[in-house]
Design goal:
about 220 residues, alpha+beta, Glutathione S-transferase Yfyf (Class Pi), Chain A, domain 2, about 10% strand, globular
Length: about 220
């Protein structure tokens, strides 16, 4: 019985999990969640009342696993075959988890603050919050720039869970706070992530939905 992934291909956190599934070549049943469809939304909330995706459902083990990082950890524990996204070495595993959280909290979440503000009703915007998010993004870019000076991937030579987090985080962040010429190492890393077959596949699946992104230049990365 295949795993079920409740997701949407346009969602950055869902893309993070898709990368892991594709890297490990794990069969799964894709369950697209459409919140504009009452029935689809209701069915999803029966699985996970919080109503945030991605959510992995393992019927064989009777387990419901929310949150992108926890899903990838679950896959690493219960599907050890194929590509290993969490190093066996405890110190490297800790570094991987640290960088996973870094990309989620200081790049991914900050990018989402900027995007969400553009979707707010007129007069309900948070200009101060957006500027703080942009400032955090620039600080994060500076840290990534130094880290990636002599690295191929986030933790060194091996692609890990941290890179699963970095790929959609940097892809979308560059659309709202462009890297430009100030962060060449980060820009090259972003390009490598986009060219990774697992993420290239996820991006291609997201392409039909890019018109939803609240930015006229959303297609420039293609």
């Amino acid at each position: 019985m295949p795993l079920k992934l409740y997701y949407h291909p346009f969602s950055s956190f869902c893309q993070k999990v898709l990368i892991a599934l594709y890297e490990k070549q794990i069969p799964f049943e894709a369950r697209l969640v459409d919140f504009s469809d009452g029935q689809s939304a209701a069915e999803f909330r029966k699985i996970w009342p919080i109503g945030q995706f991605p959510v992995l459902r393992d019927d064989a083990a009777d387990r419901t696993i929310p949150e992108s990082t926890i899903i990838i950890e679950y896959l690493s524990q219960h599907h050890r075959g194929g590509f290993q996204l969490l190093p066996a070495d405890p110190d490297l595993a800790l570094q991987t988890r640290l960088r996973d959280r870094f990309f989620d909290l200081h790049v991914h979440v900050q990018m989402q603050k900027v995007v969400t503000d553009r979707l707010r009703p007129a007069g309900r915007n948070d200009a101060y919050g957006v500027e703080m998010a942009r400032a955090t993004l620039r600080t994060a870019y500076g840290l990534i720039e130094r880290e990636m000076e002599a690295k191929t991937w986030a933790v060194g030579d091996a692609f890990t869970m941290a890179d699963c987090a970095a790929a959609p985080a940097l892809f979308y962040a560059d659309l709202v706070e462009p890297l430009g010429e100030q962060y060449p190492n980060t820009a090259r890393y972003r390009t490598r992530l986009m060219q990774r077959p697992s993420y290239a596949r996820a991006l291609e699946e997201a392409r039909p939905y890019f018109g939803l992104f609240p930015k006229q230049q959303a297609d420039h990365a293609y």
